[in-house]
Amino acid sequence: MPEVIFNGPAGRLEGRYQPSKEKSAPIALILHPHPQFGGTMNNQIVYQLFYMFQKRGFTTLRFNFRGIGRSQGEFDHGAGELSDAASALDWVQSLHPDSKTCWVAGYSFGSWIGMQLLMRRPEIEGFMSISPQPNTYDFSFLAPCPSSGLIINGEADKVAPEKDVNGLVEKLKTQKGILITHRTVANANHFFNGQVETLMGECEDYLDRRLNGELVPEPAAKRIR
């Protein structure tokens, strides 16, 4: 898989990129956990997500946020990292102008960035938000959430307690026109220690069902005049 360097808002960004053989294939952008707590694009879950999309024919990119690995710049508490993600998507779209749709998958801090990117980019048609932290980060910008997606967390997550994630899910489920799928991995912590295979099984099942045309919201009832 090619190692790439592309321009970001605060200097060069380092990534790993796998183009699809199909010119019009969808794009998948994978976002890593918190840079100040050891998060990089080589995180095991990020790595597995990258290959999950790649095996299904997506053009796939994962990259290091500013200040991590060979990416230039300094940690910017989310604002700069969101700009990095937007630049990464711009870069891969510039190489694949025939690709019309995109997915974003983020883990922990990366899920917060991914959901913000979702609000800005109408071409993002699906998302995976793994171990989001609504107890730490403000998700109120999801008003309304524009795309259907998967939210998945560990039952024993002490970093982002289950009740907080459930609150976010319930709020999003009230929105019309999208379908939020929620999965909980039994006994798993924030890092899915010993449970990554189970996590990936859930993500693969969700993606395959979406690609098969399942898990779409019911059409709104027509008003009778």
Automatic annotation (TrEMBL):
<protein>
    <recommendedName>
        <fullName>AB hydrolase-1 domain-containing protein</fullName>
    </recommendedName>
</protein>
<dbReference type="InterPro" id="IPR029058">
    <property type="entry name" value="AB_hydrolase_fold"/>
</dbReference>
<feature type="domain" description="AB hydrolase-1">
    <location>
        <begin position="34"/>
        <end position="136"/>
    </location>
</feature>
<dbReference type="InterPro" id="IPR000073">
    <property type="entry name" value="AB_hydrolase_1"/>
</dbReference>
<dbReference type="Pfam" id="PF00561">
    <property type="entry name" value="Abhydrolase_1"/>
</dbReference>
